[in-house]
Specification:
It is a single chain. This protein has about 400 residues and is of the alpha/beta class. Helix content is about 40%, strand content about 15%. The chain has 13 helices and 11 strands. The strands form 4 sheets. Strands 6-5-7-10-11 form a 5-stranded parallel beta sheet.
């Protein structure tokens, strides 16, 4: 009996000490103004994107608006009424109009620069001055969405782009992560459709519609998120625990991402995840080509440069090639160019011209002052250069 009494006393003291410590800590954090609000899991609070699109997982939010303060130029971002980062467009094509639809990811949506500085807007402005198009109203329509892979871009084509009757569809493929986006084993964010081969045919796997929040992205949630949201919202201690956990997972994500996303530079090993990712990606491009040609429109592919491919510092590029044990950094561009020749798909590789420009001027066309120098997305000069060379290329095509 005495032992039970002593055990009860010890438990009471321990529990009392714990409650006292937590109370003092909670008060201390509030006095210090330390707060780390957690997102309400399941709530659609993002001002620019919704995460409830039944075909694509996430998508632009119609008429969404926010002030951009991350990588790039701080500016107000507005989505149009269809949920795309573009000017407002009518679904009725102007008589004798020329409509070009851009499909892509963050390089095309381009939240990092002002809308008028995106490569699509520059293409539209320049093509309107093309002598071969002087009597036509040119519209270059931006259907890019941050984080998209080719499967989501195909769904965008099917469920949104055709409403605008484009004459030309351009797929901007970024080998740096589009390949991994298209294959479940290489991707971490599963709120997206995948396509898989069954009996030699690509079929859509839409199982993302039934995902629980913890199944979407192992790097983006904490065990704390299983607690009632009201408790997380009102406890500074729990918020701090969550922040520490999520920050650690983000560091792990950066390590894993850097380890995975260098293999696109190299020819894949037989029967590897990368070989399957390439096969699925090429299959998706062919599906897109077939659907575009069936609509009597034109189709082409452009390959988006990775920042490491176009560094003006030759020594830095050579160091990367040595670490990867590759003879050059253009394997994906060369492969897709050859693929295009085999499959009747025009392909324009952007990495070569961008690298030539970087070598000539000594300027980086990727990177911003508030982010990774010479890394990440195209900067204002990069978008301007891409917009100009693409409009020159297309102007020549239409002249011929």
């Amino acid at each position: 009996m005495k032992k039970l009494k002593n055990l009860a006393i010890n438990l009471g003291l321990t529990l009392g000490t714990l409650i006292f410590t937590l109370t003092v800590s909670e008060i201390g954090l509030r006095i210090a103004g330390i707060e780390h609000p957690a997102p309400h899991i399941g709530a659609d609070k993002n001002p620019l994107h919704t995460f409830k699109d039944m075909y694509r997982g996430w998508a632009g939010k119609p008429n969404g608006k926010a002030f951009w303060q991350e990588e790039g130029i701080p500016s107000e971002i507005k989505m149009n009424s269809a949920g795309f980062r573009d000017y407002e467009r009518s679904k009725n094509k102007p008589e004798n109009g020329l409509r070009i639809a851009l499909l892509g990811d963050s390089f095309t949506e381009a939240l990092n620069v002002k809308l008028e500085d995106t490569y699509g807007a520059i293409m539209e402005e320049n093509l309107q001055q093309c002598p071969a198009l002087k009597n036509r109203k040119v519209e270059v329509m931006n259907f890019g969405v941050n984080g998209y892979g080719t499967a989501q871009e195909l769904m965008t084509l099917r469920h949104h782009v055709w409403d605008y009757q484009p004459d030309l569809v351009i797929l901007a493929l970024y080998p740096g992560n589009d390949l991994s986006n298209n294959f479940r084993n290489l991707e971490h964010d599963h709120l997206r459709p995948y396509f898989v081969y069954k009996d030699g045919q690509l079929v859509a796997d839409m199982s993302f519609r039934n995902l629980k929040f913890w199944q979407r992205n192992r790097y983006a949630f904490s065990l704390v998120d299983f607690l009632p949201y009201g408790l997380i919202k009102n406890s500074r201690i729990i918020q701090l625990i969550r922040k520490v956990d999520v920050d650690a997972k983000r560091r792990q994500y950066n390590q894993d991402y850097n380890a995975i996303n260098i293999d696109f530079y190299k020819e894949p090993l037989p029967n590897s995840d990368w070989e399957e990712a390439w096969e699925v990606t090429e299959g998706l491009i062919k599906l897109m080509r077939d659907e575009v040609y069936e609509k009597n429109a034109d189709f082409m592919l452009i390959t988006v440069s990775h920042s490491s491919q176009v560094l003006p510092d030759i020594q830095e590029r050579n160091s990367l090639k040595k670490s990867l044990n590759v003879s050059n950094l253009f394997y994906p561009d060369i492969r897709l160019k050859n693929f295009g020749k085999e499959e009747n798909i025009p392909v324009y590789n952007l990495a070569g011209p961008i690298w030539n420009e970087a070598k000539k001027t000594g300027k980086c066309l990727h990177g911003f002052d508030n982010a990774l120098p010479c890394g990440g997305h195209w900067n204002v000069e990069g978008h301007k250069f891409v917009g100009e060379i693409m409009s020159d290329y297309l102007c020549e095509k239409y002249r011929n």
